Amino acid sequence: MINWWLIVVAVVVCLVVLGLSCYFVVIFIAENDKASAWFPKAVVVVSLSIAMIGVLLLPFDIASRKDPTTMSKLSGIDTELMWQVLLWIIGGLVIVIVPFTMFFYEAYDPEQYSVVQQITPAALYTFGLVACFIALCAVLWITVGIAEIPYYSYTSAAQRVVAHDPGIQYRQLKNIQILPIGVSLFVYVVGLLCGFGWLLFMIYGAVGLTALPVDTMSDWMNRPKPISQGEYAGEVERIASRADMLLKEGKKLQQEQRKKNNRSVRRRVNALKQEVTLMEDEIEKLDIAYKDQGGSPFKVAFQLMGAVFGGILSLMWILHVFLYNTLNLNPFLNDFLVQMDETFSLLGTLVYSIFAFYLLGCTVKGCVKVGMRLVIFTIHPMKIGDTLMNAMLFNTALILLTSVVVTQFCAWSFRFYATNTAVDTLLNLYVRRLKGIGTAMFYFQYIFIIVAILSIFWVILCPRKPQFELDEDGHIKRDADE
Q1: What's the Cα-to-Cα distance from 52 to each of 4, 92, 217, 414, 426, rounded to whole Å?
Q2: Distance (Å, whole) CA 424 – CA 12
Q3: How far apart (Å, rounded) are the C-alpha atoms in residues 442 and 62?
Q4: Three-class SS string for 41-83?
Q5: What is the CA radius of gyration of the chain?
Q6: pTM score of the predicted model
Q7: Dihedral pair phi/psi, residue 187, rounded to 5°
Q8: Rounded distance, CA 105 to CA 380, Å?
Q9: How far is 468 from 352, CA to CA, in rounded Å?
């Protein structure tokens, strides 16, 4: 029997998620893209909505899980089909749609505008990416596309108690056997997406678990204080001097790029872009300190509460992974979610959503944090009212890919809470047991917890230093190669 109440809730949640995605684009979009780039905007809205729905589908799956006595659906809703449709859509967005849109946007040239000039390179780059993924997936699926399912094997042997006694006793033996099962192409594609996502998640997600609350607390402690006009003028002069230095360095790098565009030059270009980003943040804080006299006290209080709440969530996640996922000593958060669900079902859904969305936020934060420290790639920072569509598309792709891992990680971490669900069968029984990928994911969680603990010392004890500094004569004292 179909549970119409669940359908109504699902429709309402989808509309809320769609509204939040539209609001996200509206508040972050840069002024230059407000009246243009409608196709990339639509892709971002759809992608963010799908990512959030993917994370929220687990509690919906739990509400319509199978009855353990009859193994029939309590709600009559086919959640297996819902997961298949959703994960195929995520795969298509991550591999095809979002990369094509990003290439299409970056190929725009206002001086020589032509739709063909945008579509052609975008289609070629996307075709190359899709071809590589299909080839990799096909080779691995054909060669090692099996799930190794462990099971208990029982054997018994009858023997007489005494040689001439008619009584018989049985000796039973139990051992673990492995049952290899060939998986479908869909399961292997999901496993491959999880594998790629874990490569990002075990570093960025782990670093973000520490960086998000620590940086939020640091921003609160170093929040803009009210300053006088004289102090404001002095700071403006200092920033102007630094801006002039960065401008000269930019012209120098531009000349070097024309001669040789090697790794060293590209690394210095990335460092320069990051310095400009940090300087823009400094100017924004300076304006708040003087023009707004420190900003709203409500915003300051909210920032402090966010830092404290984030620290609690990070600590609970680290403890849960350590106590349950790796050592299997205590169910920990599983018991808490089950109790919340028994008290009022929406409480369990709310608590789960907070933990899952927090992991997504930590991953994005970790990506920016690692990029700021190691200067290994061009970062795409998200700034309210000043985010170009390529930066928004980059972070959207990151959120989409890690949303699959977050769903898999949450289904894995909350197995008691998600028992008898479609996602439990898909991700915990098959994807987690895939030959090669499943084994790697099992050990990735150990790397995740190690990186999370080490990043505590890295983020707190090793604050970031400027890549470019001035000496007494106003020249660059240290560049990014040092």
Answers
A1: 22, 16, 26, 18, 19
A2: 25
A3: 24
A4: HHHHHHHHHHHHHHHHHHHHHHHCCECCCCCCECCCCCHHHHH
A5: 27
A6: 0.78
A7: -60, -40
A8: 14
A9: 43
